[in-house]
Every structure is written in C-alpha cells, then in structure tokens.
Input
Amino acid sequence: MRLGLGVGIEDGVVEVETSLEQALRIRVVVNNKGAIIRFMSKSARLAFGLNAIFAWLGAIGSLTVDALGIVIVPQFGPSYFGGHAVGLAGAIPRVIDNLSYFTIWSNFLVAITVTMIYRGLSTVTTWFKVLRLSSLLMTTITMIVYIIILAPDANPQSWNIYTNLLLHYITPPVTIIVWLIFGPRKWINWSIVFKSLLIPIIYIIYTLIRGAIINKYPFGFINVVELGYAGALIGIGLVFSLGLFLLSVYFVIEKIISRST
Output
C-alpha cells in the first residue's frame, strides 16, 4: 500500500494514487474504458470485414455468373442490355454489360473502400474520403432505385437470386448501418460532398456515350431509344436529385453524430 500521492505503471495503465481505495477506483475505470475501446475496435473490424465480404461476393458473383453464362437473363427489349450469344461466344459482351451497371460500380466501390478501412490506413487522403462517401451514396441509390423502380419487373433466376440479394438487399443496408455505427467520423464536409458526385457523373457520361454507340441502355428511365434525350435527362435528373438529397441527409447525420462523440 502506498500512502499519499504516487504514480504507478502496470500493464500500460497509469495510476495516480492518493489512497488505496481511490487507486482501485481509478484502475477499474481506466481498465473498463480500455476494454470498451478494444471491444469497439474489434467490433468495427468485424463489421467492415463482413461489409467487404458481402460486397465482393455480390459483385464478383454476378460478374462470374455472366462471364460463364451460367444464367442467361432474358432481354427486356432490343434497346436494353443483353441479347448476346450463349456460352463463351458471348462472354466478353456479357462481362462488359455487367460492368456497365450502376449496381456493379457501387458494389465494387463499397468493396474496395471498406476493405481498405478493414486493413487499416496509414494515411487518409481527401480522395479516399471522397470515395468512401461516394460508395455510401451510390449503394444507397442502388437500393432505393432497385426496390422502387426495377424490382417489380425483375425476375432473377438460379444463381442470380443470390447475387441479387447481395447486390440490392444486403450490401446497401449493411454499408449504411456500418457507416452509422462506425463511421469513420468527421470525414464529410461540403468539399467532400460535391467531389463525391464525380463518379456518378462519370457513370452517366459513360452510359450515354456507350448507349449512343450500341443503342442499348441498362435501365428504362435512362433509355434514350425509348424516351429520347429529353426524357432520359429527366430520368437522370430525378435520380441525381435523389443523390443530392441523400448527400444532404448524410452530411447532417455526420455532423450530429460527430458533435455527440
């Protein structure tokens, strides 16, 4: 027992003692806080790891199914993706179509960013923060647009049932929940918000250019053949407005959570 003021170091815990009883109370509090921090760290790591697994399984699983022609998805119409030869003969165009869906872009972006967070980052750049927010935005749009607009006409078969669940119903909400609970926090400001729109804008430009060349589009609301450019731009504008709204919501949520922690 040490009487009076003293400093003890044991197991990495610094104790300032004025009495035995006070020293014990300080030690318990410090150790409990340390235990909580270690627990949260492990929980975050597990959450980001599962998030990455779901995203990789969905994206790579869908790509594999299309590449090998395991399931041939019926073409909605002549101006929609699909209509390729079965077997290896149609593998390359099927893969290109697969990689031209917004859903696949969003899932790969989620997979890459959460994997990097899971593995640990020595430095966090502005552009990684942009990619993190962009992946959150894109996967949220993927879920909302699919459930509200695309799901009623979708009829996934065989292995696509499982990839569809991962791509649209599992990875998006898991990504949102993981972000809400584990962040990382204080990564969002207005500069990051506006820069996070870059990849969606690139996707829109790519889709319109490719569509003008092959006369095929991934979705009805962006199908220039059916709607004309005016109609397609209206559809794009509505989805873009949804994106701006979601970014505003995430910005506000981030500020509220950051202030409370």
